[in-house]
Specification:
By secondary structure, this protein is mainly beta. The protein has one domain: Jelly Rolls. It is built from one helix and nine strands; from the N terminus they run E-E-H-E-E-E-E-E-E-E. The strands form two sheets. It has a six-stranded antiparallel sheet, with no helix packed on it. The radius of gyration is 17 Å and the shape is globular.
Length: about 120
């Protein structure tokens, strides 16, 4: 008996235009609202931090997770500092200040997912 292969259509996700939020920081949010219906209960982006650059300190009402895809650097979270590197996953509670500082010689690539309660 011969099995037939059936093609499954998986929604392809696209990035919105690049935002330059600080020197050496480029953010590309994933356009989930136009790609998936109904829209998922979270948002996501990919951002890069050049060597010697950082994200601005921020805090917001949403939960957030970062996956460090490439590179390493320093994470400042709620008045504490720690080193983060490729394959690390970190979680930020709402209204806690967080910032990444790329103190290495390589670019950092980070995927972010955030959501509300």
């Amino acid at each position: 008996m011969i099995k037939q292969n059936h093609l499954i259509e998986v929604p392809r996700l696209y990035f919105l235009p690049t935002q330059h939020l600080a020197p050496g920081l480029k953010v590309r949010e994933i356009d989930l609202a136009s790609s998936i219906s109904p829209s998922p209960p979270f948002q996501s982006s990919r951002f890069t931090v050049d060597s010697g650059c950082s994200s601005p300190p921020e805090k917001h009402e949403v939960h957030e997770m970062w996956f460090i895809s490439e590179g390493k650097g320093k994470l400042c979270y709620d008045n504490q500092e720690m080193q983060i590197q490729q394959n690390d996953f970190v979680y930020f509670e709402p209204n806690k200040t967080h910032q990444v500082i790329n103190d290495s010689s390589d670019m950092m690539v980070i995927f972010s997912i955030w959501w509300s309660d």
